[in-house]
Amino acid sequence: MPVPGPSPAQSSPPAAAARPGAHGHGRGADAVTMGKPALPTGPALPFGPAAARPAHLVPFTAPAAAPATAAVPDGAPATGEGPGGDLVAEPARRAAAATATPNPALERIMRGPSGLGTQGLFFFTPLRAPLTTAPAADGPPAPPPPPAAQGRPIPGLYHHPVPEPDPARVAEVSRRIKRWAVDEVQAYPPEWEDQFDGFSVGRYMVACHPDAPTIDHLMIATRLMVAENVVDDCYCEDHGGSPVGLGGRLLLAHTALDPVHTTAEYEPEWAQSLLSDAPRRSYRSAMEYFTQAATPSQADRFRHDMARLHMGYLAEAAWAETKYVPEVSEYLAMRQFNNFRPCPTITDTVGGYELPPELHAMPAMQRVIALAGNATTISNDLYSYTKELDSPGLHLNLPVVIAERENLPAKEAYLKAVEVHNDLMHAFEAAAAELAVSCPDPRVVRFLRGVAAWVDGNHYWHQTNTYRYSLPDFW
């Protein structure tokens, strides 16, 4: 991967079944079930031991057995040269050379740790990595993925190109996630199939997680991404979402991630409620798989970031109900919460290792993660700008807010939003470089590489997903 570069984000994480140009109102959230039979109720305690779960909810064996995910020695040196560090970094770095000024400290981050004792810190990700998990025996072979639409990057947007994601992995992740969404959680009805396919979530996640040692690890992130977008679509936006009553819906959905500890009398009713609509079914199942692979601290970290996301949803909904256009500073504050942060925060789980809690909680690391989420989210505002203009009512994004609050024409407001994105990206890269120097723990450097790779992969997906996005005619 190149130097950590800008990436896009979205008014809420991209929608798994987002209808282009739609911002639906009035349809109930449980319209997504479309008369399909209910899922098996499963155990009364949805977060209980794996042995008590239905077979379809017991995911892969713990990732510790996966290759190239050896435990990180506490005293492993972080200097010198080691094999494998540039398998992903070098090709994209060459491609970015024409548009990005090299940052020596950032280059060190992307090279990663090396020297005696650090070989286990590297992930095995050749440019065309072989499948490390065979296709499931109960399904047909994965069809070849369609070629990625080239799209074009937003002129002037600071970003780093990435290698084309491995097509075999893309095809297999795409096959598995569609089977999960249709058969396990019934996340969308047949008439949304083209939208689900157009979302290209397999290509998205393979691009964002080049360090994932197996397909099973990639599926952790893929299920969570789809689940987050089912919630966004059905509760907030395109498919029946509404700001009215959103707080109650989100709170109950959040209990699928953060279980309720209640009395024996009322626990069965709560457990059954987790199967009542597509958003809760999706959250419940995706979290089951995630907690099988994650450590308790990683799971708690993710729950915290999802609570942040839901708080951002509620702020945006409150403004929509009162028809309030926030100040630019207020909008940017909201987008620090309603943003992509839950996605890069699990980069270590998907990579098959753990950044210890005391390292993840460092203020400097929290700043890096926040800036990565903020920059990618503003990039999403920019790529989804024309899509949101076609939706009913006033859809807030940074160019719209700048135009309204600073009395600028649409083009000038959009170009100023590009500058805001670039400032956030440069701040992200500087903060990551400073942290790598001040805390050269190889686990910190590896996590920073993962976040940077996620930022770049996220931009790649937005740029190439011409099914969802088109650029305004401002150039």
What does this molecule look like?
Helix content is 50%, strand content 0%. The chain has 18 helices and no strands. The longest helix has 29 residues, at 410-438. Mean pLDDT is 78; it is low at 1-100 and 112-137. It is mainly alpha-helical.
Structural class based on helices, strands and sheet pairing: mainly alpha
**How is the biggest beta sheet arranged?**
none
Radius of gyration: 21 Å
Average pLDDT metric: 78
DSSP helix fraction: 40-55%
The percentage of residues in β strands lies in under 5%
SSE sequence, one letter per element: HHHHHHHHHHHHHHHHHH
Helical segment count: 18
Which term fits the overall shape? globular
Terminal CA distance reads: 29 Å
Query: Stretches where pLDDT falls below 50 for ≥5 residues?
Result: 1-100, 112-137
Number of strands: 0
Main attributes?
mainly alpha, disordered N terminus
